[in-house]
Design goal:
By secondary structure, the protein is an alpha/beta fold. The chain has helices at about 1-20, 70-80, 115-125, 150-160, 185-210, 215-230, 240-245, 250-255, 310-325, 370-385, 400-405, 415-430, 440-445, 460-470, 505-515, and strands spanning about 40-45, 50-55, 90-95, 100-105, 135-140, 180, 235-240, 265-270, 280-290, 330-340, 350-355, 360, 390-395, 410, 430-435, 450-455, 480-485, 490, 500. The radius of gyration is 25 Å and the shape is elongated. The termini are far apart.
Amino acid sequence: MRVLLLAATIFATGSALANERAPIGTGVSASDRPNTAERPIRFAATAPSGGVLVIPMAGAGDLSHVPAPLRDDVTRAVATAGFKAASDKTLSLYGAGGYDRVVLIGVPQGQLDSAALADFGGRAAQETRTNALPVAIVAGGLAATVSEPAAHVAMGATLGQYRFDQLKSGVTAPAIQPITIVARAGEAAYGRELAGVAQGARMARDLITLPSNAKTPESFVAAVRTQFAGVPNVRITVLDEAQMRALSMGSMLSVSAGSRHPARMMIVEYTGAGNAAPLALVGKGITFDSGGISLKPGAGMGDMKGDMAGAAAVMGGALAAARRGAKANIVAIAALAENMPGGNASRPGDVVRTMNGQTIEIISTDAEGRMVLADANQYAIDRYKPAALVNIATLTGAVSTALGDDYAGLFARDEALAGRVQTAATRSGEAVWRLPLHPSYAKDMESPVADIANGTTKSGPGAGRGAHFIGFLTPEPTPWAHIDMAGVDGTDESLPTMPKGARGFGVRLFDALVREYEK
């Protein structure tokens, strides 16, 4: 008996030590700090008499927004520098008219749309980033295609000053003096209509930029919950793996099978239009994509921490709509999993069953995004009967080959929905380009043992084949579209509203798309 008790004690102690020594990751947080504070946004009817002043110019001869005391100085500086005031180009004057610095920024001629206004504000924020003094942006009287143009300038300034520095020690606190938007109107519209869009985009950028040892399906859920706290008319549901198994979501579960981090499906419902059928936004949320058993090459694999950018986009878009009280119903679904080559990982050649009963032969475990979207789409259709369903995902490298980093690829089997997405893309400044769903893709994706294969060994239109796979498993007649954002999820150089790094692409597009569905 003593021997048994001793053995049991040793076993229990050993188990405790094993558990103590085997945390998920290091068990030590990389940082407990938030990002450093950004400049607050203010509005004023008149420009201050000092600090930094930013002035828009639509061509070298445009002095319409230049205060009278500065016009001679600006005219001389423009002539001396040969400044053409082309769109997004800048020229600085120092010590002119009592200002520490005057920044001239070129804007397009004619009426400015919402994207151009935001770009002006974003460039102003980036150009004055290192100035310690308060910044004022002249935004009154801008000719625009939208009402309250100063509100869009303010949103751009908010997005342009984004930074992610929470993981760096010894960071020197940047300037926190305010950015003042100089205009007689726009403050209320910014707070009511656009501040939530900026919040959604910044949330998406934070999530994408976080390294994957600080970002799992569960922590993604927790971070998004925090952002929605207190927002009215929102309901959040999270499915765990046992619930997914009960729903026969074999496609999604096949992706997380090799990871110690269990999959989650996060559903955010926003109700702003009574009993109307909702718009469903479904995003790929692979918190890290190693490729699984079909392991990716090491070069560039670290970028796969951002393979959940689609999930971040749908959550950011839903947050923007909910914050402004959109007159629409929205269901945003994040299909969250980590794709790792563990002992229980799916293998090439495996066959799995989806929620709708169809089967998939896995050709490559690195074609995992389409797998999680298949079950998430079926759940959205069964549970919510949506008016339309739009997927967004960093799905294929092939779309980057086709469209570079200028456009996301758009696939759709419903012309009305495609038109709405294209309109939203134009209005938001987040561009898409329509690509075909050719009938030949069905032949390419045939499987001898299952209803469809998740890939093929043949060369060819990888983005189109991926889109066909998702559409094949998304039952008609639900209007469906798919956005492949793999080429536009990040930027290697600062754009006006997007500092180098994660773009948070899709948040502004979805905000504009929701407006297409408002009652």
